[in-house]
Inverse folding.
């Protein structure tokens, strides 16, 4: 009975106001979990080993997650490098005002290349596209105090540049730092690949390179640009033709590789005659094709056998008379032929009937007694 009363009194006591007590309505603080400490040395070693193993497992898991992340980044890097390899060696193109670009001293284009239907067709294509789709190539020719290019020299793309200049459009160009020899090789190969450079233009280009000392010999030049040595020789032979021979043609662009040797041989054999013939063809302006001009220049005139002076008999004139009146002449020409000339009657008619005269001559020639 007493215990019951004591328990009722204890239940009515309020300990919430005591220091350290939790406010009313709040849960009491969690009781810390008691971890029993090992009481023996083997137990302590086992507990240390378990703690260490757990820490190693956590570190291994972190390392595994980091390795997976690194593999993912490496894959992305490989993809990016693969894409970059596709652009290896590529150079960015930019728009440049044509006025800032000057021709190269090795320029291989004749002024005729910037006229005619082919150039007009290229010009129309660039105009329709709003600019040149295929960029040209230039190299810096002048720089300012900050080392920035202020002028450029063209490597290749002369016709595209000229078309943009005429249309008032900026030209799309790739800028590259090249030495003279590399500039020449790239210019020659690009133009030869496009197959629109004439034989004479190629020859002039090769001659300029050799004159400038870019290559020590024809063979070294042929090896650098990848052409046959004999083809190079024919192109150089065209470029070496005298100006009066080239001027005889409507345009030097019409000269062909296979004409180089015959023309050079004709000039060497008789330069005076070839020069006179070329001058006459140029001044006469008969509208001959290039092949016709070539054939006239290399034509060999008929000559007498060497050491024999041909005999040129004097022309003999024999009058034809009826009584005392001379009615015509019979002329013995230098080649042994005879020519009869009888004047007309003054009204556009012959003095004698031509058919009758022919029969009379035949009778005389048949009857030796009448000669």
């Amino acid at each position: 009975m007493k215990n019951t009363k004591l328990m009722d009194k204890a239940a009515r006591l309020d300990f919430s106001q005591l220091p350290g007590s939790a406010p009313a309505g709040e849960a009491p603080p969690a009781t810390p979990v008691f971890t029993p400490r090992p009481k023996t040395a083997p137990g302590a070693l086992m507990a240390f080993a378990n703690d260490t193993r757990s820490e190693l497992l956590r570190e291994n898991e972190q390392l595994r997650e980091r390795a997976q992340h690194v593999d993912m980044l490496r894959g992305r890097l490989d993809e990016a490098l693969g894409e970059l390899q596709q652009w290896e060696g590529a150079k960015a193109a930019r728009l440049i005002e044509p006025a800032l670009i000057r021709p190269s001293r090795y320029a291989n284009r004749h002024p005729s290349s910037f006229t005619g239907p082919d150039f007009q067709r290229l010009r129309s294509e660039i105009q329709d596209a709003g600019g040149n789709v295929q960029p040209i190539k230039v190299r810096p020719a002048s720089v300012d105090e900050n080392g920035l290019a202020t002028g450029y020299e063209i490597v290749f793309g002369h016709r595209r540049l000229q078309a943009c200049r005429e249309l008032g459009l900026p030209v799309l160009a790739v800028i590259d730092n090249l030495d003279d020899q590399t500039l020449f090789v790239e210019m020659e190969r690009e133009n030869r690949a496009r197959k629109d450079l004439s034989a004479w233009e190629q020859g002039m280009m090769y001659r300029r390179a050799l004159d400038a000392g870019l290559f020590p010999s024809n063979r070294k030049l042929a090896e650098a640009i990848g052409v046959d040595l004999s083809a190079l020789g024919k192109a150089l032979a065209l470029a070496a033709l005298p100006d009066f021979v080239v001027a005889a043609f409507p345009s030097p662009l019409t000269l062909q590789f296979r004409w180089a040797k015959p023309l050079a041989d004709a000039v060497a054999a008789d330069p005076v005659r070839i020069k006179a013939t070329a001058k006459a063809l140029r001044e006469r302006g008969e509208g001959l094709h290039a092949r016709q001009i070539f054939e006239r220049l290399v034509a060999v005139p008929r000559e007498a056998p060497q050491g024999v002076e041909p005999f040129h008999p004097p022309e003999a004139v024999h009058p034809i008379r009826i009584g005392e009146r001379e009615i015509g002449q019979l002329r013995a020409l230098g080649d042994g032929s005879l020519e009869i000339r009888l004047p007309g009657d003054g009204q556009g008619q012959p003095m004698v009937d031509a058919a009758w005269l022919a029969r009379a001559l035949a009778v005389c020639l048949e009857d030796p007694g009448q000669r």
